[in-house]
Structure formats: structure tokens, C-alpha cells
Amino acid sequence: MSSAATEDDQTYDGAATLTLAGARFRVRVRLTGHLDPIDGNYHWQGTVFDSLPETSLTHARAATLTIGGRSAPARITEQTPWGTHSVAGVGPPPYARSGPASATT
């Protein structure tokens, strides 16, 4: 995350449900995103702080992240040296955004 955050940048830090390889996991996430002016899509990414079973990650990296009543397709991009996982998505995020309206909210 950058200290030069714009008004359109949003951060969510809290509970979520990650569905991965048919299994559901309650996790804590920190997510942020931005509207990309070149492709016009909202790009979001962040960290899954809870550990995930290696067996789930060997079969699929595509996932669904749900926060409250909002769900979004996501991808587990890597496991960090600290045991957390990076997650990313393109399109409407799984958390409510405030600020300037866009076609993806």
C-alpha cells in the first residue's frame, strides 16, 4: 500500500469466507484496490492472514471471496515467506466501496 492513496482507494480489513477447491474457509483479509485508468477495470488485491491447507492449493488457485452478501472471483497468487497468501481480483470487489461511482460498484 502506498502513502499516496487517492480518494478512490479503499481498504477492507476483516472477516471473509474463501471458497477454494469446493471447501469454505473463514479467514481474515486485508484488501485494497483502485480503478485502473487504462483498462477501466477495478483491480483489488490483498492478504489472506489465515493458513490454507496445501492440498486445497495444489488443485486450484481460483477462488471466490465473500464478505457479507458480496462475492467476487479471486485468485490465490502466492504464499508469502510469512505463511500468509496473496489474493487478487479484477472487477467489483467483495467489499463495499465508497467514493466516486464507477461502472464496477
TrEMBL record:
Annotated keywords: Monooxygenase, Oxidoreductase
Lineage, uppermost ranks: Bacteria, Bacillati, Actinomycetota, Actinomycetes, Mycobacteriales
Top-rank lineage group of the source organism: Bacteria
Matches recorded under InterPro entries: DUF4873
Protein's UniProt keywords contain Oxidoreductase: yes
One Pfam family from the record: DUF4873
Gene Ontology MF terms in the entry: monooxygenase activity
Protein name: Monooxygenase
Domain DUF4873, residue spans: 9-96
Residue span of region Disordered: 70-105
